[in-house]
Amino acid sequence: MIDLGDWNDVLAPLFADERYQKIRRFLIDEYNAYTVYPDMYDLYNCFRFTPFEKLKVVLLGQDPYHGPKQAHGLCFSVQDGVPNPPSLENIFKELKSDIGCELPKSGNLTKWAKEGVLLLNTSLTVREHQANSHSKCGWAWFTDSVISLISEKKENVVFILWGGNARSKKPLIDKKKHCIIESVHPSPLSAYNGFFGSKPFSKTNEYLRSVGLEPIDWDLTK
User: Fold this and answer.
1) Which residues lie below 8 Å from residue 85, measured CB to CB, with a gap of 6+?
2) Which residues are catalytic?
3) Which residue of 67, 136, 177, 207 sits 20 to 30 Å from the alpha carbon of 154, by its own alpha carbon?
4) Which of 9, 2, 219 lies closest to 124 in space, CA to CA?
5) What is the largest CA-CA distance in the chain?
6) Interval 160-216: pLDDT, tens
7) Helix or strand or coil: residue 212?
8) Which of 143, 156, 121 is nearest to 37 (CA)?
9) pLDDT of residue 112
10) Dist. CA 140–CA 179, nearest whole Å
11) HSE of 208 in the Cβ direction (CA atoms, 13 Å)?
């Protein structure tokens, strides 16, 4: 059994499902035959670093980075010492514009995860240099179920949805209980069409304060 702290009880029905067993068998073959990211020991870091009890925000990504030493189980995040991908650079530019945080030297977002931000990709694995290569292996069922469980079992969670893939998950979220903040994706292809100036970080904290919760400390330079 994977030890994911208080997520174990939440996710137990998914791990017991035959559809998850198929994903597991698929991954065993993939990790044996190809280079797959993230490292299998980092696969569930988004749950390890953000306990269910402390969860306040869900930031939804799509696919792990597929280059060496980038992905480590948190969407948009890269490991220390790895150059920031363009989307992450744009996220940091908006962070500075929105709430004045200085641009961090590292693209490692583990601090956000520990603040209560679940950094969830809709696919949790990918083959090296092959974007979306695992998108049809069953991860969509798994991560859709995670979103639905959060919506059902929690209250006053902020869901940050950037881009078409993330925004397609809105039907899974109970809008009466939760806050949805959405825009185009921060990639260079779309960032100037509505991501820059969307103020997702300040809007998130405004909502959290409005429901009596501590805001997220987004500053990665401390």
Assistant:
1) 65, 70, 78, 107
2) 63
3) 136
4) 2
5) 50
6) 999 999 999 999 999 999 999 999 999 999 999 999 999 999 999 999 999 999 999
7) coil
8) 121
9) 98
10) 22
11) 23
Nearest-Å Rg of the Cα atoms of the chain is 17
Residue 122 to residue 60: CA distance in whole angstroms: 7
Tokens describing residue 151: 């919506």
Block residue for tokens 């998108």:
135
In this structure, what are the phi and psi dihedrals at residue 168, rounded to the nearest 5 degrees? -70, -10
Dihedral (Cα; 44, 201, 182, 166), 10-degree rounding? -10
Distances (CA, A) of 18 to 99, 138, 172: 45, 11, 22
Strands (E), 108-183: 117-121, 126-127, 158-162, 179-183
Q: CA dihedral defined by 111, 195, 173, 157, rounded to 10 degrees?
A: 40
pLDDT of residue 1: 59
**Which amino acid would we find at residue 74?**
L
